[in-house]
Amino acid sequence: MMNICFQCGKYHADKTIDPSGPFAICPECGHEHRFQQLPLLIISGASGTGKTTVYRHLLGQVSQAIMLDSDILWRSEFNTPDNNYRDFFETWLRVCKNISQSGRPVVLFGAGMGVPENIENCIERRYFSTIHYLALVCSDETLSNRLQQRPEWRGSNEPNYIEEHICFNRWFKAYDNQPVIELIDTSETSIDETSQKICLWIDKNIKLSGY
Prior knowledge:
single chain; 211 residues; alpha/beta; Rossmann fold; three-stranded antiparallel β-sheet; 6 helices; globular
């Protein structure tokens, strides 16, 4: 509901942000709405690197943030490669923005979420103080083995699917740009070890942001 002006009632996602409040300023009437501009934490990685396993393992163990899996909102209407799935990313940022008004930041798990180009250009990006990126990676062999061991109905054992995600996994490893994407290699670490590293990463970045 933050995109609806509390004064004039007009809908605008593209409000001007004044960090001194912070305030979201309506471009129609100039009304300044104070809001909580919290950080957003994104945990990503190619299929087979362990995102879902870690997400399930951490449920109930992280109290300083709200954890969400981006797959829960996916539907066919969002399958728009022509505009790089922009509506899906905007929708998720809008959801996270509104949830964070409760006073706790969101930790969002999702593959495409971890590509900064998909997120940093979104209109809704302005409502977060910063975005921290973390990607799970592993060796090509480990990734291939994990995908082949999944149930057949998922289609993860198809050669083209495996090759696609090996390439995506390599992209994270080779990424050397801003904003930074921190990496955790899950090739030879247990779920407990990986979860502990992620908990430390979450705690570190929330504290760095002053929350």
